[in-house]
User: What shape does this take?
Amino acid sequence: MAPMAKKRRHTVLVDEHVHDWVAAVLMEYGFRVFKASRDSRFRGREEANYIGELRRDNIAFVTQDREFVQRLTRGGMQHGGVIWLPKGWPEEADIAVHAAAGMLLGALDQSSKGAHNLVIRIADDGLYTIIKGREQLAWSVEQLEFEIEEELARRNLGG
Assistant: This one.
């Protein structure tokens, strides 16, 4: 029997000011993670100057830069997918980052270009998606809590 082909890991670039714990969460989901501050291809460059390269290479981007994301969504810049995390998002509230990572992974598992032009915005009340400048609530905090409780119950039942 021929060996199974190894599944290619999806890649994410984490912006310079995003905390390391966010990168660790993404790695838990199997993402290959690069930090812009440690990668000579991106260090010191404006996001707008490399966002097209990320799209070309199917690399998603995680940022806390509100102004950049607003320019991105209003200006119609093409990109490989973005998770937008508010500045100062506390590690204790990492459940939202887990949910965003899962949403991004789901889009990328459908197609290597499944996250193109998708922005996932993390907010106090849930996760929003922004596609073609249109924002909508994808998951509320209440829905996330329900899904987590269901998953924990499933795991405790030996599922």
